[in-house]
């Protein structure tokens, strides 16, 4: 997967242009678009050699077996001595993860930041959005009279203070930003302020004209919201996620362009706070990129019962901000025929059509690197590839800027992987083991392949694919929370037990996915993980049930008996929703476990009392 467009949670499959509108509507083509907040002015002014940090002379630079780019010789000879072992351009989560791991490994490390530490995730992404979603989750619960009554609770009308909610998001971002900054300072990472660019092999310029050298350089410059042509962003009524996270208003009616995970999360926030939402999606179905069965169920729970309508198979070809008493105008054209379909008049529009890499002005031409739709081409070890297809020595790119998997933890994991390599340990990150989550209520999570992807792979490579499913409806903990809506689904190879993908929709799905992602990362097979023990009563038992539901090869086969209630879970079982059989079987399983639990408890109490 080389680009964001191929990713599970990418927002769109539209062709991206490098022409990206910034928040002010100006063309985001020069480094000037970054604001220089001057996080650490002293770092900007002082010479890097003044910074005392850990240094290891034992650092071994891996010699590469690949062909090395000619750029190493055409843009000046590499320096003979270095200011740093590692320079990272961009202090987002990717850069931060790499920097911490680098100092831990004894590398003298500098990180260059042109705006504020924390990048997108901390300041304009994961962190503030999860703060807003924490509020929307509570609002949703408090507003649900039926839900409250089922607990025997009585709550007077729920309300919120918009500024209070916005402050919660902003305060959390500030706190996490400070944590990130302090963690790097404490470990001795030099934080240098200014716009960074690559001057030549192992040479970086930052700020006005500070030049520093390093044995290795990591580019971690992240991404910015992608705004398609024809859409005018004014930051008030036509906004991107950057603006929306400030929650300066809660419009009565907001159109969300793009139904990927960012659009979906904002629909959760806005509808909980009282807005009506209209999704505009270029593809024929909502939530493209999710496993189709999961998006179908998610639509039934997250879209249909809420104040949300949608237009699929259409482009928003022109969006004009509200002005002089006129509403926001959205021109819709058919995605295939390009014919005019409709004109919407709404209070606001949120453009959630994906992210574009921020790689302009990086001096890539100095090392003969040509971006692909703005993304920096890298190999599986994050080593940058030049215009001739050769590796650029000592230059790496991680995170959103390479487009492999545009998620915070992926950026950080790629950074750690690079540090492993430059300190002498080969490491290739398995991107198929990296989980992804959408923090709606309930949550969606996934790791590995979707069912159609797995079937395609199976057909090509000649193996059979099986699917197991289980439900939250039979899980004691979920039922205690009155949150039985949800399924977990595993796609695997019945011949050898390899787990190809796991998808969860339900309470705390984002936390539950890690057992599956670790299993994939470590190559654990279904026949082994199904013997693992899960505490009762926990949501983790949903996965326990899922693994146990898998049928295997002759040695591990569970379904020899046609009357076995597990039969319904075979891949020839079409019904995605929860069958009565499953509820009954799992409920009896739960009571069975409860029985064992009670017996253990009584045994323990007899011993200790
Ligand atoms: C609304 C929203 C919600 C999200 N939610 C999640 C989530 O829940 N989970 C998740 O995993 N991901 C989430 N993401 C995605 C996540 O934020 C990104 O994948 C992640 O931030 C990428 O990290 P990065 O280090 O590659 O880049 P960034 O975080 O974008 O950081 C890049 C940094 O580099 C700096 N920079 C850029 N160019 C230069 C230069 N030339 N010189 C100096 N500094 C420079 C920038 O100022 C920035 O600080 C979300 C994104 C959005 C927009």
UniProtKB/TrEMBL annotation:
Broad EC category: oxidoreductase
Keywords: Chloroplast, Disulfide bond, FAD, Flavoprotein, NAD, Oxidoreductase, Plastid, Redox-active center, Transit peptide
The UniProt record lists the keyword Flavoprotein: yes
InterPro entries: Class-I_Pyr_Nuc-Dis_Oxidored, FAD/NAD-bd_sf, FAD/NAD-binding_dom, FAD/NAD-linked_Rdtase_dimer_sf, Lipoamide_DH, Pyr_nucl-diS_OxRdtase_dimer, Pyr_OxRdtase_I_AS
Subcellular location(s) per record: Plastid, Chloroplast stroma
Catalytically driven reaction(s): N(6)-[(R)-dihydrolipoyl]-L-lysyl-[protein] + NAD(+) = N(6)-[(R)-lipoyl]-L-lysyl-[protein] + NADH + H(+)
Pfam families: Pyr_redox_2, Pyr_redox_dim
UniProt domain Pyridine nucleotide-disulphide oxidoreductase dimerisation: residue ranges: 434-545
Source superkingdom: Eukaryota
Cofactor remark from the record: Binds 1 FAD per subunit.
Residue ranges constituting the FAD/NAD(P)-binding domain according to the UniProt record: 84-415
A GO molecular function held by the record: dihydrolipoyl dehydrogenase (NADH) activity
GO terms under biological process: 2-oxoglutarate metabolic process; response to arsenic-containing substance
PROSITE patterns per the UniProt record, alphabetical: PYRIDINE_REDOX_1
Principal location: plastid
The UniProt record lists the keyword Cell cycle: no
Cofactor entry: FAD
EC number: 1.8.1.4
GO cellular component, one term: oxoglutarate dehydrogenase complex
Note: The active site is a redox-active disulfide bond.
NCBIfam families per the UniProt record, alphabetical: lipoamide_DH
Classification via PANTHER family: DIHYDROLIPOYL DEHYDROGENASE, MITOCHONDRIAL, DISULFIDE OXIDOREDUCTASE
Job of this protein: Lipoamide dehydrogenase is a component of the plastidial pyruvate dehydrogenase complex (PDC).
Quaternary organization: Homodimer. Part of the plastidial pyruvate dehydrogenase complex (PDC) containing multiple copies of three enzymatic components: pyruvate dehydrogenase (E1), dihydrolipoamide acetyltransferase (E2) and lipoamide dehydrogenase (E3).
Family as reported in the entry's similarity comment: Belongs to the class-I pyridine nucleotide-disulfide oxidoreductase family.
Name of protein: Dihydrolipoyl dehydrogenase
């Amino acid at each position: 997967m080389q680009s964001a467009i191929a990713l599970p949670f990418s927002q769109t499959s539209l062709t991206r242009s490098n022409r990206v509108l910034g928040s002010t509507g100006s063309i985001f083509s020069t480094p000037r678009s970054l604001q220089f907040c001057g996080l650490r002015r002293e770092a900007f002014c002082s010479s890097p050699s003044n910074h005392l940090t850990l240094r290891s002379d034992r650092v071994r630079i891996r010699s590469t077996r690949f062909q090395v780019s000619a750029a190493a010789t055409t843009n000046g000879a590499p320096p003979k001595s270095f200011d740093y072992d590692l320079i990272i351009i961009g202090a987002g989560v990717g850069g931060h993860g790499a920097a911490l791991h680098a100092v831990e490994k004894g590398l003298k490390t500098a990180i260059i930041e042109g705006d504020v530490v924390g990048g997108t995730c901390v300041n304009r992404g994961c962190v503030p959005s999860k703060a807003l979603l924490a509020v929307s989750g509570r609002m949703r619960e408090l507003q649900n009279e039926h839900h409250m009554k089922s607990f025997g609770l009585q709550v007077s009308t729920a309300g919120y203070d918009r500024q209070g909610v916005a402050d919660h998001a902003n305060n959390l971002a500030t706190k996490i930003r400070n944590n990130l900054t302090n963690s790097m300072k404490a470990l001795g990472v030099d934080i240098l302020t200014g716009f960074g660019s690559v001057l030549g092999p192992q040479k970086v310029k930052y700020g006005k004209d500070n030049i520093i050298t390093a044995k290795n350089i990591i580019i971690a410059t992240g991404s910015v919201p992608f705004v398609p042509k024809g859409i005018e962003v004014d930051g008030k009524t036509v906004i991107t996620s950057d603006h929306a996270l400030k929650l300066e208003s809660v419009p009565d009616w907001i159109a969300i362009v793009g139904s990927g995970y960012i659009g979906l999360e904002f629909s959760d926030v806005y509808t909980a706070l009282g807005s009506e939402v209209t999704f505009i999606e270029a593809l024929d179905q909502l939530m493209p990129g999710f496993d189709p069965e999961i998006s179908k169920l998610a639509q039934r729970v997250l879209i249909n019962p809420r104040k949300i309508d949608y237009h699929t198979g259409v482009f928003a070809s022109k969006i004009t901000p509200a002005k002089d008493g006129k509403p926001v105008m959205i021109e819709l054209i058919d995605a295939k025929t390009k014919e005019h379909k409709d004109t919407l008049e709404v209070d606001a529009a949120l453009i959630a059509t994906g992210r574009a890499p921020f790689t302009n002005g990086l001096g890539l031409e100095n090392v003969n690197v040509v971006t692909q739709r703005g993304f920096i081409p890298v190999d599986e070890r994050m080593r940058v590839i030049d215009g001739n297809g050769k590796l650029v020595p000592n230059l790496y790119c991680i995170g959103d800027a390479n487009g492999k998997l545009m998620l915070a933890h992926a950026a950080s994991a790629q950074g750690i992987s690079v540090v492993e390599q430059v300190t002498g340990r080969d490491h290739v990150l398995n991107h198929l083991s990296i989980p992804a989550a959408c923090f709606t209520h309930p949550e969606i999570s996934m790791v590995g392949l979707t069912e159609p992807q797995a079937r395609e792979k199976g057909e090509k490579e000649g193996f059979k694919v099986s699917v197991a499913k289980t439900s939250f409806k039979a899980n004691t903990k979920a039922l205690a929370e009155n949150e039985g809506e949800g399924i977990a689904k595993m796609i695997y190879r019945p011949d050898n037990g390899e787990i190809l993908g796991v998808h969860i929709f339900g309470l705390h799905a984002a936390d539950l996915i890690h057992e599956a992602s670790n299993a994939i990362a470590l190559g654990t097979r279904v026949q082994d993980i199904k013997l693992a023990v899960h505490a009762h009563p926990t949501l983790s038992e949903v996965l326990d049930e899922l693994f146990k539901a898998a049928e295997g090869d002759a040695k591990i086969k569970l379904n020899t008996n046609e009357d076995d209630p597990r039969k319904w879970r075979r891949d020839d079982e079409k019904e995605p929703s929860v069958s009565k059989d499953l509820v009954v079987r799992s409920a009896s399983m739960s009571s069975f476990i409860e029985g064992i639990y009670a017996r253990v408890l009584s045994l323990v109490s007899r011993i200790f009392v």
